[in-house]
Amino acid sequence: MSQEIVQELTFFTHSVIMGLVITFIYDWIRVLRRLFKHGTVLLSVEDFLFWLACGIGVFYMLYRENNGTLRWFAVLGATVGMFFYKLVVRDAFVNVMSTCLHKIMWSVFRLLQIVLKPLKSLIYAGKTFVLCLGRKLKKCKEFIKKRLTGFRKTIRMVLCKR
């Protein structure tokens, strides 16, 4: 084979791999979307950033492999890679990974609840203590205010008589 044909096959292979990688990364985004609910604004921002990163990656590959010239068989190679990935993997990857990560997150959450339960009761006891102390201080303040008011009235009466 000539060197030129080998370079073209390498370029096509890199295009196919780029299509596989793009689809694989997007599947991870789909997994994260299943784990954490997103609004339409966040979905749009995620998609914009993803496609911006993909565009930069494809441009870098085209620049490095083909001096920045767009060749349609590179687009065909990326499309073949994407379809091959979808044909082999389908939605099984997203389903399995989102289920596994959900179970892991649930287990970690339950473990944190068990570990932090004494802390929760300590915080509740502290809150109760602070509220009780606040009530006592309020009563003390009212008592002192009444005593000072009475003392002030007594002093005013004594001064007014003289």
For the structure shown, list the relevant keywords.
162 residues; mainly alpha; 2 domains; 91% helix
Task: Map the helices and strands.
Layout: H1 3-35, H2 40-66, H3 72-89, H4 92-161
Helix pairs in contact: 1-2, 1-3, 1-4
Structure characterization notes:
By secondary structure, the chain is mainly alpha-helical. The protein has two domains: 3-90, no CATH class; 91-162. 91% of the residues lie in helices and 0% in strands. It contains four helices and no strands. It has helices spanning 3-35, 40-66, 72-89, 92-161. Helix 1 packs across helix 3 and helix 1 packs across helix 4 (92-161). The mean pLDDT is 89.
The Rg value, from CA coordinates, equals 35 Å
What is the number of strand segments? 0
| Share in β-strands | under 5%
Query: How many domains make up the 3D coordinates?
Result: 2
Gap between N and C termini: 124 Å
Order of helices and strands: HHHH
Name the shape in a single word: elongated
> Structural class of the secondary structure composition?
mainly alpha
Q: Which percent range fits the helix content?
A: over 70%
As residue ranges, the low-confidence spans are none
Major beta sheet summary: none
Number of helical runs? 4
* pLDDT averaged over residues: 89
Brief overview, please?
This protein is mainly α and 162 residues long. The chain is 91% helix and 0% strand.
